[in-house]
Design brief:
Blueprint (H helix, E strand, L loop, with lengths): L11 E8 L8 E9 L6 E9 H11 L3 E4 L9 H10 L5 E4 L9 H7 L8 H13 L4 E16 L10 H25 L4 E8 L2 E10 L10 E3 L2 E17 L6 E7 L4 E7 L4 E7 L4 H9 L3 E6 L7 H10 L2 E3 L7 H7 L8 H27 L6 H11 L3 H13 L16 H96 L13 E9 L2 H11 L6 E6 L5 H8 L5 E6 L4 H9 L4 E3 L5 E4 L2 E5 H44 L1
Parallel strand pairs: 1-4, 4-5, 11-14, 14-15, 16-17, 17-18, 18-19
Antiparallel strand pairs: 1-2, 2-3, 5-6, 6-8, 6-10, 7-8, 9-10, 11-12, 12-13, 16-21, 20-21
């Protein structure tokens, strides 16, 4: 039975080099496009000669199901270029090499085997490749797995946003996080399995990676970039180039059947592994045969009873397989013991499974012997099938296969099927490809390291020279900076001195005017300022305030002194002020203490309220009318005269009192 399907319904591109070489000058290609005709019989054929660039444009725009060639390296110069070419193919387009996998056959042999017209002209070879691929002949060339990475990241750099940098960064990361949640929701709705990795940053995510079990066309997310967010989609790359037969090869198997109202079938591989078990009440013999076809090619069909039931015999003949029955009906306890480590749901499945496993036990030595004698280049399953079912010797089968290879250009009605590698062989080839790739990478890295070492040595020399220059420049900059700082300090000092000079000059001018007022015998005193007297304010009646006033504008004899706050002064403070012999002391807020008032009275320094004198302040100083000051002085003298009389009267009363007290003491003594 053939394992191939009918011709494909999708568009197929057949490609062959027309002229040039992909490794040299720009090549041209013979292109044959096959598309199923409207009546469903045959194909509509288009032939053209195109450049590589036009071929890629047509593949991108028309998205054929298959791009077929007899040699994949006619489309790419090397492995890296081939991977790049595969990555550019539309999601639904396959690259198919119709001549086989790593050891391809001549296109003429493959075409003849499958009855496809062949000619040596490039256009004829392109058409042969297209028709073979349409008949599901060849292997798919793949560099990518069925896993896809969806990357959600920032669409722009956060950069330096000035005063708004934090808000700008938070907005971008928040947008990435929101889009990540949308992608996650879309993948969940599509029922796709995935793993998520996120990089959390201020305000949200800077990046999110989704490793999705599926191809790009299966994922409901498209790549785009808009504003703050960018979405990229990339398929996971394999370690190397891999080949997948278009026609899925079915392994050779041993089949056990238990017929009846409930029919059970068990499939066992040539290594004794149970592959599948079925039990059904509704399927007829044809449906059972179809189920077996989907799972393998039977070498042996077995039953658990003797003789072989008609239904089992019918299934055996349909596959032209060898039959197996026990010497007598298998006992239940033996069937239970043989199937104890396998899983089954009912007695019918157990009986079918026991038949297959006992048949395998009888043929196991034969299977191993055939596998040992079969050369690696041949399919051991095919050889085993001919030995077991056809009663041929291994040597005869191998000789026949060898003769077929030697006479490959002759008539060949058998279908060439790529031998499926064992798990160990697949692993070995994968590791070999990985080792080759890693070795190439190591060589590249070693070459890069050598180049970088040379560059590092060169840069170290330049760096040392730059450091010397930098040290010289640094010394010069430090000297210049030191001198500049010294210059700036001197300039500030000059500015401060000039400001101080301006301030003192203004103050000097004001003091001159006041001095002229104080010495009114000078003829140059303005008429408008005649009749005024300078007043020297003292903020507080304290020794420190008196010293500050004296330092600021000098206190001298016959000055008019204005105490802004006269409260709290003692004798020593009053004596300090009295030492300057002021003309009069004008008292502002607060009142003089009795002690201070007594000191000033003793020194005959007039004291009066400041409210009685109309003053006008000029900077730190003030001026008052001479007449107001004289009035205060005159008033003090009047009050002082009265005060002296009171003091004398008090003294006289005290003397009289003391005299009377002395007389009383003398009278008491006598």
């Amino acid at each position: 039975m053939s394992a191939r399907t009918s011709a494909l319904d999708s568009v197929v591109f057949g490609v062959d080099v027309q002229s040039g070489d992909v490794r040299g000058d720009a090549p041209s290609y013979a292109l044959v496009v096959l598309e199923a005709s409207e009546d469903g019989e045959g194909y509509d054929v288009e032939r053209d000669v195109v450049t590589l660039r036009k071929l890629r444009r047509r593949i991108a725009s028309e998205e054929p199901g298959i791009v077929a060639t007899d040699n994949m390296y006619e489309l790419a110069a090397d492995k890296d270029a081939l991977v790049h070419f595969l990555g550019e193919l539309p999601a639904g387009t396959k690259l198919v090499q119709v001549t086989g996998a790593e050891q391809p056959e001549p296109l003429s042999r493959v075409a003849k085997r499958h009855g496809v017209p062949y000619g040596k002209q490039p256009m004829q070879e392109a058409e042969a490749a297209a028709r073979l691929a349409a008949a599901n002949v060849g292997v798919e060339v793949s560099a990518f797995t069925d896993e896809t990475t969806v990357k959600v990241s920032r669409g722009r750099s956060t950069g330096k946003g000035g005063w708004s940098e934090d808000r700008y960064t938070r907005r971008i990361h928040g947008s990435v996080k929101a889009r990540t949640r949308e992608v996650e929701s879309e993948l969940d709705d599509a029922g796709l399995e995935y793993e998520r990795e996120v990089t959390e940053k201020y305000g949200g995510f800077s990046q999110a990676l989704f490793h999705v079990e599926g191809r790009p066309q299966d994922i409901p997310v498209s790549r785009h970039r808009s504003g703050d967010v960018r979405v990229e989609i990339e398929r996971e790359r394999r370690d190397g180039i891999e080949f997948e037969p278009l026609a899925k090869r079915r392994d050779h198997v041993v089949v056990g059947v238990d017929p009846g109202t409930t029919t059970a079938v068990a499939i066992v591989g040539l290594d004794g592994t149970v592959l599948d078990v079925l039990s059904t009440r509704t399927a007829d013999t044809a449906a059972v045969i179809e189920w077996i076809v989907e799972r393998g090619r039977p070498i042996v069909v077995a039953a658990d009873v003797t003789p072989m039931p008609n239904t089992v015999e019918k299934i055996r003949r349909s596959f032209d397989a060898a039959g197996w029955i026990p010497d007598s009906d298998l006992p239940v306890d033996e069937k239970q013991h043989r199937t104890r480590s396998e899983g089954y749901e009912n007695d019918h499945e157990r009986d079918a499974l026991a038949a297959a496993l006992f048949a395998f036990d009888d043929h196991e030595d034969q299977f191993e012997r055939v596998a040992r004698k079969t050369p690696p280049r041949y399919d051991s399953g095919e050889v085993t099938a001919r030995v077991v079912a056809g009663d041929e010797s291994v040597e005869a089968v191998v000789e026949d296969l060898t003769a077929d290879e030697d006479g490959g250009d002759g008539d060949d009605d058998t279908e060439h099927v790529e031998r499926e590698l064992s798990a160990e062989e697949k692993r070995i080839k994968t590791l070999e490809r990985q080792v080759d790739r890693l070795q190439e990478h190591v060589d590249d890295l070693e070459e890069t390291v050598a180049e970088k070492d040379d560059r590092i040595a060169e840069l170290e020399g330049e760096l040392e020279e730059s450091r010397r220059e930098e040290r010289r420049d640094a010394r010069e900059r430090r000297t210049v900076s030191r001198l500049k700082r010294r210059n700036d300090a001197l300039e500030r000092e000059v500015d401060d001195r000039e400001d101080r000079i301006d301030e003192l000059e203004g103050k000097l001018d004001r003091l001159k005017e006041l001095w002229k007022l104080d010495h009114s015998n000078f003829a140059d005193v303005e008429e408008t300022k005649q009749g005024l007297v300078p007043v020297k304010p003292v903020d507080e009646f304290t020794r420190a305030a008196i010293d500050d006033a004296h330092d600021a504008y000098g206190l001298a004899s016959d000055d008019v002194v204005f105490l802004r706050d006269a409260a709290g002064a003692g004798r020593s403070t009053a004596e300090k002020l009295a030492a300057f012999e002021p003309r009069v002391v004008l008292v502002g807020d607060g009142g003089l203490s009795d002690a201070a008032d007594a000191v000033l009275f003793e020194h005959e320094i007039p004291v009066g309220p400041a409210d009685d004198v109309a003053m006008q302040e000029v900077d730190e100083l003030a001026v008052a009318r001479e007449s107001d000051v004289d009035a205060v002085v005159d008033d003090w003298h009047d009050r002082a005269a009265a005060r002296r009389k009171e003091q004398k009267a008090e003294q006289l009363d005290q003397l009289i009192s003391e005299h009377r007290a002395e007389q009383k003491k003398e009278q008491r003594r006598s």
